[in-house]
Design brief:
The structure is a single chain. The chain is an alpha/beta fold and 284 residues long. The chain has a single domain, classed as Rossmann fold (3-Layer(aba) Sandwich). Helices cover 50% and strands 13% of the residues. The chain has a six-stranded mixed sheet, with helices on both faces. A two-stranded antiparallel sheet has the order 7-8. A hairpin with a 7-residue loop joins strand 5 and strand 6. The protein starts with a helix and ends with a helix.
C-alpha cells in the first residue's frame, strides 16, 4: 500500500468521527456543494488545507454528487524551502496541484495597520480570479472550527460587534463566485492529531510578519488570533465545552434580547417598536 493510501485510510477510519463525519456534516448541513459545481480547493501548504484537499478526494470517491475539483496553490512569496515543502507534500499525499505566483508578501510586509487582514483580502482576491480562469464557481478554504470561535471573540473584543465566520459566502466583488469552508465543524486539535499520526510536516503561514512574532514568542502582542487561542485554551481548563458554547451563541440568538442589529443596509433598534410591542402585550 502506498503512503498516501495509508494516510487516506486514517481519515475515514482512525479519525472517522473527528474529521470525516464532521467534514461531511459541514457540507451537508450548510449545503456547500451542488450538482455540477466546479470547486477550486485552495491549498496554502498548511495542515488544514492539505487535509481539506484529501477529504475532497475521498468525497469524490463516493460519487454521491456530480461535482469537480481543481487543487490550486498560490505562492504569495514563500521562500524556496517552503515552496518545495508544499510541492513535496503534494506529491506525498497524491494531490495534483496547480501552483501560480502572486507577489503579495512583499507588498504587505511594510504595512503597519492590520497587515494580516490586508494580506488575507489580497490573497482571496487572487484566488477568486484564478478559480474563475479555471472555470470554477466556488473556492474552498481550510478554516476550521477553532477559526470560527476565535473570530467570534475577536469581533466582540476588538471590533465591538457580534459576528462570526460564515460557512459559505457569496462574493460581492466576483459575481457568480462563492466561498465555502468545509472544515467548519472540524477541530484544530483533531487536525493536529491526524498530522502527527501520519508523521507529516507542513508549513505555517510562512510570511515575514508571522515569522517575526513567532520568533519573538508573540511578546509584541501583534497576533490577536493567537491571543484568542490562548484565552480559549485557558478557559477550557475550567469549562470543557466553552468552545462549543461560544459557537452555539451565534446559532441561538434571541433578537428580542438584542439592543440593535443590522440586516444589509438597515439597522434595527429595540426602541423602534418598543411601545408598539408593549401595547400588544397589554391587549393580550
Amino acid at each position: 500500500m502506498e503512503k498516501f493510501e495509508e494516510i487516506e485510510q486514517t481519515i475515514t477510519k482512525r479519525f472517522r468521527k473527528e474529521i470525516w463525519k464532521r467534514f461531511v456534516k459541514g457540507i451537508c448541513e450548510y449545503e456547500m456543494i451542488s450538482e455540477g459545481d466546479k470547486i477550486a480547493v485552495c491549498i496554502s501548504g498548511g495542515k488544514d488545507s492539505m487535509l481539506m484537499a484529501k477529504c475532497f478526494q475521498e468525497l469524490k470517491k463516493h460519487r454521491k454528487m456530480n461535482f469537480d475539483v481543481k487543487f490550486i496553490v498560490m505562492n504569495p512569496g514563500y521562500n524556496e524551502l517552503n515552496k518545495q515543502k508544499i510541492i513535496s507534500n503534494s506529491k506525498l499525499l497524491n494531490i495534483p496541484i496547480t501552483m501560480f505566483e502572486a507577489d503579495i508578501f512583499n507588498r504587505v510586509v511594510n504595512i503597519e495597520n492590520n497587515p494580516c487582514y490586508i494580506c488575507a483580502r489580497m490573497r482571496r482576491g487572487y484566488l477568486y480570479e484564478k478559480a474563475k480562469e479555471f472555470g470554477c464557481n466556488k473556492i474552498a478554504l481550510g478554516h476550521h472550527f477553532d477559526d470560527v470561535i476565535e473570530t467570534i471573540l475577536m469581533g466582540m473584543f476588538y471590533g465591538a460587534q457580534m459576528q462570526t465566520m460564515m460557512p459559505k459566502v457569496q462574493s460581492t466583488s466576483h459575481p457568480g463566485m462563492e466561498l465555502i469552508r468545509p472544515l467548519y465543524f472540524v477541530k484544530e486539535e483533531d487536525i493536529i492529531m491526524w498530522r502527527d499520526k501520519n508523521e507529516l510536516e507542513f508549513i505555517e503561514c510562512a510570511c515575514r510578519f508571522t515569522e517575526e512574532y513567532t520568533a519573538n514568542d508573540n511578546k509584541d502582542g501583534k497576533s490577536k488570533r493567537q491571543e484568542m487561542k490562548s484565552l480559549i485554551k485557558e478557559m477550557k481548563q475550567n469549562y470543557e465545552n466553552i468552545d462549543i458554547n461560544i459557537f452555539n451563541s451565534v446559532q441561538n440568538v434571541n433578537l428580542d434580547t438584542i439592543i440593535s442589529y443590522k440586516r444589509g443596509e438597515n439597522t434595527y433598534h429595540f426602541l423602534d417598536d418598543y411601545e408598539e410591542r408593549l401595547e400588544k402585550k397589554k391587549q393580550l
